[in-house]
Amino acid sequence: MLLKKTCSLLVFILIFAVLTGPTAFAGSEITLERAREKACESGPNLRKAEVEHELAKEQLIEAAGYYDSTAMREDIEQLEAAVEEWEEKIAGQEELIASMEQKTKELEEDDSQLMEIKEELARAREDKKKLDDELTDLRRGRSQLLARYRQAKAVEDEVGADRLRKKADRSGDMLEIMPEVIDYHVKTTYFNLLFLQRQQKLLRQALSHRQNLHEVAEIKEEMGLVIPGKVAAAEEKVREGRKELKDLQHKEDALRRKFRKLLGLPLDEPFALYDLSPSLPDRDQLFGLGPPELEKSVQYRRAEDELENALYDLEDTSPYDRRKYRAAELEVEKAGLELEETAKELRANYEEEKETLAAAAKKYENERFGLKEAECRLDSFRSKYEQEVVSGLEFKEKKLEVREKELSYRQARTEYYLQAQSYLLARIGIVMDED
Question: Is residue 295 in some structural domain?
Fold first, then answer.
């Protein structure tokens, strides 16, 4: 009976090694750097953002023409600045003329300087007249352009050009941050895939050990050396391990599909990942960074633009049309509130990412310390094994415990690294989706 049990155990181990051994991939090995490059070169996400931005710009040009109200507004602002400059010049010229007129009153008729001052005064009055004429032209040009602006704005409102412009702006914003977003998702998927592979490798070893314990329990039960239920408990652990391994394989398959999509690979193309541990940032430098620059984020800038546009619309609305003017005032108030809300959301996201980073750093340190303790306990247990105080199965179980600790440590290290990336993005106002 003992020989039969031993043979069946060897057969099971052989079959299990064939069925659940490490997956062999015919595809080439992909490094993290190559994956990041390929995601930007061939991945669909960046190209999709580029196409959407180009399409939005074409739709805007078709709807409002190249010289739309936004361009007119910029020219109006330049004219207004010129008007202010000329008004200042005229004011200075008027002061000069007043000063000269005062001097002519103070001088005697036979004073030799009187003729010179009168000549300078005449020239100053001529210069002022030129400035007045130029100012009149500037004001006339501003009025004409402002009329054209209002007409163009009305046409744009009718064809929805303002909505198309906002769409173009939003697509441009997304194009600006897309490389960093793609890079984050590539790193996350890459390291999560590595972790799943390590997890499956450890689980296969543990499952083999559980099967050994099950076989030994069956032999001892026949010999009357174990309490009832021991065999059933060992068998249940084997079933749990197989189910867990199957679940991990499904998770890996899903992550592989996501990784192929990120890199623009064929859905059935095999690949292997180069195994590595992420390089951790300097903790003091990471936590010692200055305040975040949330106001430079595309979300915040977009909200600022909305408020600025609302203020322009209010400025261009006649206060005599009370209904329209009140509506424009409400739009300004709404845009202001949305800007405040955007700032609050970005700040809250930053603070949350900062807290999560601190927790990840603490977990990493705890796991590192826990691994060292487990290794010390294994060394002590090894001495007992060499002295034949404990069995080989017990010693193998201790080694598996250390490997589990090592896996937890490596995962904590990876989570710390990825959270640092997410935190750095949050500092510049990029909010990452959970998936």
Answer: yes
pLDDT digits (tens, 9 = 90+) for 361-407: 999 999 999 989 988 888 888 888 888 877 887 888 788 888 888 88
Token couple for 120:
């300078």
164: tokens are 């198309």
Please indicate, yes or no, whether residues 299 and 411 belong to a single structural domain of this protein.
yes
As a whole number of Å, the CA-based R_g of the chain is 38
432: helix, strand or coil:
coil
Query: What distance in Å separates the CA atoms of residue 62 and residue 56, rounded to the nearest whole number?
Result: 10
Contact call for residues 2 and 219 (beta carbons, < 8 A)? yes
Greatest Cα pair distance in the chain: 144
pTM, entire model = 0.58
What is the C-alpha to C-alpha distance for residues 341 and 367, in angstroms, rounded to an integer?
Answer: 38
- Tokens at residue 368, please? 């590192």
d(CA 335, CA 165): 17
Q: Which of 227, 257, 276 is the last residue of a domain?
A: 276
Q: Single out the residue of 257, 278, 267, 431 nearest to residue 364, CA to CA.
A: 278
Cα separations in angstroms, 250 against 153, 243, 247, 275, 395: 55, 11, 5, 20, 32
Q: Which of 115, 133, 160 is the last residue of a domain?
A: 160
Domain range enclosing 293: 281-303+341-435
Q: Let me know whether 118 and 198 are in one domain.
A: no
Using 50 as the pLDDT threshold, list the residues of the chain that sit under it. Answer: 1-26, 64-67, 159
Helix (H) / strand (E) containing 346: helix 322-386
Query: How many domains does the chain fold into?
Result: 3
Q: Are residues 187 and 226 in the same domain?
A: yes
Buried-exposed string 259-285: b where 16+ CB fall within 10 A, e elsewhere: bbebbbbeeeeebebeeeebeeeeeee
Taking alpha carbons only, the member of 78, 33, 56, 18 closest to residue 167 is 56
Give 234-256 pLDDT, tens digit per residue. Answer: 788 888 888 988 998 999 899 89
